[in-house]
From TrEMBL:
SUPFAM superfamilies reported for this sequence: Homeodomain-like (SSF46689)
UniProt KW keywords: DNA-binding
PROSITE patterns assigned: HTH_TETR_2
Domain HTH tetR-type: 1-37
Single annotated GO MF: DNA binding
Chain segments annotated as coiled-coil in the UniProt record: none
The protein, known as: HTH tetR-type domain-containing protein
Amino acid sequence: MSKIAKNADVAIGSVYNHFASKDILIRAIYQKLGDELLAELVPDDQDNLSDMERLERYIDDYISFIWKDTERAILFEYLSNVPLIPSEDLVSVFADTSQYLNDLLTRLRESGQISQDYTGVMPGFIGGAIRNALKWQRINGKQMTPELHQVIKKTCLSALRFDQVDRV
């Protein structure tokens, strides 16, 4: 709590004015991150998009979400690798975003655009792949370019079509 107060440049007692305990504060941090992710990845203005366009937009927006705020990306990486809340709470925080992608993948499968049932697997896979790829780009001093963005996007889309790739 003292580190949080120091980073926020407030007295430690004032942190407790807003949060009854460290656990409640940590849950609030997860919830804020989950709400931000949902707002970025599941916009309201998609009525005119096909499901494949929605998937591509989801991936584009996820890449942008992680890249545009380094501190948030580091926090997200840490919180996803070292869960500080019970697993059922973690699932709850990201449930709406995961459900959106699972529903989208189900519709894509039902329409024949992807051939496997990826629900339950791909939301975490895509998010983890994007976060990890961008983490290493930052560590290596790389800048986001349209080409890098497309490589990451195409890699995610290829994972959904792995059964259609020629095997060596």
